[in-house]
# Entry
Amino acid sequence: MATYLHVFHRNVFTLLSLCISLFMLACSEVKGPVAVGPIPSERQMNWQEMEYYAFIHFGINTFTDVEWGYGDKSPSLFNPSDLDCRQWAKVCKDAGMKGIILTAKHHDGFCLWPSEYTEYSVKQSPWRGGKGDLVRELSDACKEYGLKLGIYLSPWDRNHPDYGKPEYITYFRNQLRELLSDYGDIFEVWFDGANGGSGYYGGANEERRIDRRTYYDWPHTFELVRELQPNAVIFSDGGPDVRWCGNEEGWVSETNWSLLRRDEVWPGYPNYKELRTGHPDGTHWVPAEVNVSMRPGWFYHAYEDDRVKTLPELLNIYYYSFGRNGTLLINFPIDKRGLIHEIDARRIVELAEAVKADFKINLIQSATVTASNVRGNSDTYAAANVIDSTKDTYWATDDKVTKASLDITWSEPVEFNRFLVQEYIRLGQRVESFTLEAYVEDTWKEIASETTIGYKRILRFPTVLTTQVRFTINDVKGPPLISTIGFYNAPRLLTAPVVRRDKEGRVSMQAADPDADIYYTVDGTTPTLQSQKYTSDFPVEGKILIRAITANSLTGEVSPETHEQFDISRKNWKIDGDAEMENVIDGNPLTHWHQVGATMPLDLVIDLGTMYTIEGFRYLPEQSYPASGIIFNYQFYTSADNQQWKLASEGEFSNIKNNPLWQTRKFPAARARFVKFRAINNTENDAVAGYAEFDILTK
Ligand code: FUL
# Structure
């Protein structure tokens, strides 16, 4: 019995000490980091993780070929021949997008769903015999393809008679209620900052200005969205959930805080450029969304079929949005058939393929990572968390730490040209600056010195070959929390190089990928990897034909060829007028000059500096969108003395509006030192002559 008692006591004692040790362990467990500054809501987190989704612009504007409708056009114009929302959804799905936002009503007030509150809708159109509902069709297609649906409802309505009066707000909210009640889950509600101005307004045809801060009583409209779609984020210039990025070109600043002094910003905020960086001292979590179109315009125009963004342009947009703590909302202008145009569809899939290739293998998987400091030396916050693929684990430091680093080592040398890093943003955006260094040829070499990280930051740089990298966080708002790190070796992007010659006659070449090499010839032969390699710009006085390719010298892969024929250098040319006139002969098609007169014709007179035998000219109209002063009818004169002029050529540049490319005209050779290019009229019939470039052809 005594023995049993002894055993019993011993067991109780063991159990007690076990409990005590467990209790002590629990007490000594490392405390988790606390939030620093504003943090995202669950709906904002869900939205941020979508990363990439589509915008659709479609409506009467598609059929009238304008960007902003006045609100006076007949609904009978809306008549797509082959509308198929499943085609839109398939393209978006194939492109890797997670949702689609539809312009249910743009500024012209035409509704793509049969709203009960207006007749200005698909109800009055011939499409589907007036029985169609485009929002329904898209909502169904999204469900079928596993995409989320978002709604753009323009606050500005140039059709509605009550716009500008309090009654319109009721109308606007009624429409919002319809859209947010009848079509299932909505992930984002998009309120445009463009508001108030001229319009049809039920036949009043007048200018109606509103106070953008107060007219819409936004707080109550936002409440309505919360009531009907509690999981939807609300977009406007200043949130409340998602902010505009301050441009429509497809980028957000490298320094990009997901924070905003939200109460200072409203839709139509004049200091909108601040939205490109956010406010480091922001009071609320309001991350940026980058909205950009596949083409210059938001709505479809056939003349932009050859102006769809190129793959290098789209890749830049990808890296300047996703790669800078933004999400990407990319717009497809639906064509008159009711489809995403084949060119846009192909291009967006090319982007998806290029991105997939860029991020194919994460080299961190074969690396060892050690940290300068780990929170409480606990495994929960270990450096290894940046390698695992779970987004909820992270490397954290002790609270007092303000500077910390990760050393990343490989047993064999690796090559990479992309670096990806993510903060654990659920507890706030903290990192203010960081550097990336690599151990190359026995020294530490800085690869990048950058500012913010946020949800995701991706850096592109020339390929590095190394076995050791150091990622250092230099300045923080609170101890850093890093959830993911990645190193990738993206393939070279091989597109035909851009070859230019400036006014001084210097020829320069540029590849879309800084890692790629350029090879060229000047003797008319086909360029190969054995041709001259381009290293820096060089002067060329006279006429020259340059043929160039971009290549991956290691694999031998080459791009399509660029073929540029330059005439005499324009070094000694003189044009009388303001400094901007130089843009006409600077060799850069992206700069331009406008000559504005009271009436047409307008003359551009150039002194070539010496006599030449001239047999033609080339004219390139302004390349930006929308361009002005596109010359249609012209005359071209030559002169030896700037007194006696001889007409050498005249005519029209047919289809120049739809296709504003280089226009070349040849004529019987003439000796001259002066040339005069006369704009007789332009495509808009106003008194403006616009030029991106002008050149002559000599014999
Ligand atoms: C702008 C609008 O005025 C454009 O037409 C387009 O809808 C774009 C997304 O937002 O502010």
